[in-house]
Structure formats: structure tokens, C-alpha cells
Structure to design on (485 residues):
């Protein structure tokens, strides 16, 4: 479903991604872990077109998002194709990025109506169904500022799901939340995994990654150091660097 | 002064309050959209455009409005007279009757609009730049186009943020319209000054002052209401 190979990205002289390879199959849940500044978020941002990679290949849904020509220059798909690819992906941010001037309901319906051209009634029904799933049906007419962080993040997940993405990306979805609120978000993601949603989750929640992910990827310094099943990565035959990182994490 | 005189004076002042309000209204109608455009030009990634816009803002904010108003009045005859003026422009401007009332008003309005657009542009630019990057990223991830992002997501938030600064600017404009009296353009300040020797009294000036004060007061109250309305979210 998603294939990334030899992806490189640098800011000035700082190499953030040094040739990353990643494959995500349909229905697969991939957790990306690693220390801060390892390029996890940048990888997600390149796939979601918030940044443009310098070289490498990204193929999604069998479509060519970008590749590199013989002279080593990045070639991107045309704007129309990029847009159609973007609509099939969802992204959930660390800071929610809800639109503060819109009600919860409007946050979820706006893109359905303006981008997907659904009619307002269908969009609203769809939004209410999602809000119910998130346990937030009573908050439809509230503004984001009236909600807790965990509730805001659930709204932002509903907002992403409203466009029926085929793959959903999470960029540290619980990092901006109080520890006691992370549980509700992780539960939502667990439920999505249970219904077969394809997801890539950048996270610092190790036990969550262990429980939910089909595959765990460890990144450091712009490279994937190790990847495999949770049992492999959290077990004894993981690479030494991974074990070192996890040990410090558990202490 | 008899009460009859006071009544006549009051009627006269009221009559000349109309042109004052005309300057005020036209300046706002044109300078706010123009200010929005100038703000966009200043943020343009093509540097020469941004520099030129910046130069315009610097001149407008760095020189007195009174001077700009007077220069605007003298501009057309001086352009026509100059040696470097291209022929077509001379033909175009030569046909303008610089003694007509509409010429006086239009040139004055151009000066007011250009001056206020520069101030509004800086307010709008500050407002637009204060919108967090995350808003653009969320909009982009949801597939909103550039115009949709600006009009549906950025602009409503900018309006809330710039309203206090704009109300300040708009209330200043109420009083700045009095500079038109120096052109001279017959508005309330002009007529008030002219009536002082006639009546041998400060009453005309006092009435003009009262008019400006009431006008500003109404706007202050109006903006209080608008700001409250915009407070539906934090």
C-alpha cells in the first residue's frame, strides 16, 4: 500500500533522512519509534506532502507520488495526482491543529463539503456517527477551546476519518497530552486497528507500540536502525542500539 | 448669541458633517480591501514586489498625511507640466479639470486611501503571520486549496485578531478627516474655523469637537459589540 525507498531530506547541511526504506501493507499497523530528532516526523511529513523530500521514491496505492530521475533529481507527480493521493491519506497531528473558529461539528464537516463536495446533510450525519464512536456526540456544537486535550485529539481523529482515508498517519498523537489523557487516544487507535485500519504511528508509547503494532520501526539519526515484529524489536535479538534505547526508556 | 443664531449655526455644522462622513466612509471602503492586497504583496515571495511594497508603506507611514493630501492636489498639473511625462499620460491627465470639485475630492480620497491602506496592510500582515503554521498544515492535509485555506480557515481567525487594532485605526480616521480642511475641502472643520470670526465665539469649534467626539463614541461602542461577538471562541 505504501512503499518508501531511499528517501532523503536535508535542511541546509543537516541530513534529516539519509535514505529511509519503509513498506506498509494493507491493514498493517506500523509504529515508528526512536529518539527525538531521528527524522520520524519528517518521514511522515514527506509522505503527507507537508515537506518535499530531496530524493528517493514514494509509492502509495500503486501511484507514484515521487521518484528520482537518472540525474538524481526528485520528480513529483502533477498537482492533480498529488491532490488525489492526499485525499486518500489522513494525518493526525501532535498539536491537534483543530480550527478554533469552527464548532466541533464544522471542523469535521468542512473538508467533506468543501473538498469532497459532499452535501451538508450527509457530511453532518457522517460527522455525528464518528463523534458517537469517539464518545463525543454531546460536544458537536462546542468549540475546540471548550474541550480537554484528549477530546480535541479525538475530534481531530474524527476529522481525519471523515474523509474515509485508506491509510492514517499519527504524528506523536499523545505527546501534547497529560499522561492521564493518553489512554483515551490510545484506545481509539486500538479500536481502529481492530477494524483493520492501515496506520503508521510515530510514538513514544512503547508498551502501546508493542501491543498494537504489526511492525515496529526504530529510527535514529535519519536512518532506520532496525525493524521487525514487536517481539523481535522489544526482544533480545534486536540490535544493540535498540536495546540500549529501550533500556533507558524503561528506567 | 441668540438661540436663533445657535440654531442656524447648528444646522450649518450638521450640513457640513455630511462631507466629513463621506471622506470617512469612502476611505474605509477602499483602504481596507487595498490594505489586504498590500499585505499580500508585502508577503510575496518574489522579493522585488515585497521591497517595492515595503517602500510604499515606509513613505506613507513616514510622511505626514497633511503633506500627502497637499501633494495629491498639486500632482496632476505638475505631472502634465514635467518634461519626462509621456505623451499619452499628458493627453489623459490634460483633460482633467483641476478646478472642479470632483478633482479636489478624488485626489484627496486617493491620498487618504493610500495612506490608510499602508497602515491597514501592516495590521493585516501581522494578523496573517500570527496564525500558527499548524493551521495551514491541517488544511493542506485535509485537501483544502490555497484560496479555500485563506478564506475559510485563515481569514476568519485574522479578522478576530486584527479587530482591536483596526478599531483604533478607524477611530483615528474620524479625526484625520479634519486635515481635509487644509486643502481646502469644505467639511465640518473648515466651516467651524470659518465661522469663528463671524460669530466672535468658539462655539463653532466646540460644536465640531462635539461632533467628532460623538462619532468616535458611536464607533467605540460599535467595536465593543463586534469584539464581544467575535469572542465566541478563544
Amino acid at each position: 500500500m505504501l512503499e518508501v525507498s531511499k528517501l532523503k531530506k536535508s535542511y541546509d547541511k543537516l541530513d534529516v533522512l539519509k535514505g529511509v526504506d519503509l513498506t506498509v501493507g494493507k491493514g498493517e499497523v506500523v509504529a515508528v519509534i526512536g529518539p527525538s530528532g531521528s527524522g520520524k516526523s519528517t518521514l511522515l511529513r514527506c509522505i503527507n506532502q507537508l515537506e518535499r523530500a530531496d530524493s528517493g521514491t514514494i509509492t502509495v496505492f500503486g501511484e507514484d507520488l515521487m521518484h528520482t530521475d537518472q540525474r538524481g533529481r526528485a520528480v513529483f507527480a502533477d498537482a492533480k495526482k498529488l491532490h488525489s493521493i492526499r485525499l486518500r491519506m489522513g494525518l493526525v497531528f501532535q498539536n491537534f491543529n483543530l480550527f478554533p473558529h469552527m464548532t466541533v461539528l464544522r471542523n469535521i464537516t468542512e473538508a467533506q463539503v468543501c473538498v469532497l463536495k459532499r452535501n451538508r446533510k450527509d457530511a453532518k450525519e457522517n460527522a455525528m456517527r464518528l463523534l458517537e464512536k469517539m464518545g463525543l456526540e454531546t460536544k458537536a456544537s462546542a468549540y475546540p477551546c471548550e474541550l480537554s486535550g484528549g477530546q480535541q485529539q479525538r475530534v481531530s481523529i474524527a476529522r481525519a476519518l471523515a474523509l474515509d482515508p485508506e491509510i492514517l498517519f499519527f504524528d506523536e498523537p499523545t505527546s501534547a497530552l497529560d499522561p492521564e489523557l493518553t489512554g483515551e487516544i490510545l484506545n481509539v487507535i486500538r479500536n481502529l486497528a481492530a477494524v483493520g485500519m492501515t496506520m503508521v504511528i510515530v510514538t513514544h508509547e512503547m508498551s502501546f507500540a508493542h501491543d498494537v503494532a504489526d511492525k515496529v520501526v526504530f529510527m535514529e539519526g535519519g536512518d532506520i536502525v532496525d525493524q521487525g515484529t514487536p517481539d523481535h524489536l522489544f526482544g533480545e535479538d534486536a540490535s544493540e542500539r535498540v536495546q540500549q534505547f529501550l533500556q533507558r526508556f524503561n528506567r | 448669541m441668540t438661540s436663533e443664531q445657535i440654531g442656524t449655526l447648528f444646522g450649518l455644522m450638521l450640513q457640513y458633517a455630511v462631507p466629513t462622513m463621506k471622506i470617512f466612509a469612502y476611505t474605509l471602503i477602499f483602504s481596507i480591501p487595498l490594505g489586504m492586497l498590500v499585505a499580500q504583496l508585502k508577503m510575496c515571495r518574489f522579493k522585488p514586489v515585497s521591497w517595492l511594497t515595503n517602500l510604499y508603506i515606509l513613505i506613507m507611514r513616514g510622511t505626514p498625511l497633511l503633506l500627502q493630501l497637499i501633494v495629491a492636489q498639486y500632482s496632476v498639473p505638475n505631472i502634465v507640466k514635467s518634461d519626462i511625462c509621456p505623451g499619452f499620460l499628458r493627453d489623459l491627465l490634460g483633460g482633467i479639470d483641476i478646478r472642479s470639485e470632483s478633482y479636489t475630492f478624488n485626489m484627496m480620497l486617493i491620498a487618504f486611501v493610500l495612506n490608510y491602506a499602508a497602515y491597514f496592510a501592516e495590521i493585516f500582515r501581522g494578523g496573517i503571520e500570527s496564525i500558527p503554521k499548524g493551521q495551514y498544515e491541517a488544511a493542506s492535509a485535509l485537501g483544502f486549496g490555497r484560496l479555500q485555506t485563506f478564506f475559510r480557515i485563515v481569514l476568519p481567525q485574522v479578522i478576530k485578531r486584527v479587530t482591536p487594532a483596526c478599531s483604533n485605526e478607524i477611530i483615528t480616521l474620524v479625526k484625520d478627516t479634519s486635515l481635509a480642511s487644509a486643502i481646502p475641502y469644505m467639511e465640518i472643520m473648515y466651516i467651524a474655523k470659518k465661522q469663528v470670526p463671524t460669530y466672535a465665539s468658539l462655539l463653532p469649534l466646540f460644536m465640531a469637537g462635539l461632533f467628532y467626539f460623538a462619532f468616535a463614541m458611536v464607533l467605540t461602542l460599535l467595536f465593543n459589540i463586534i469584539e464581544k461577538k467575535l469572542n465566541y471562541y478563544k
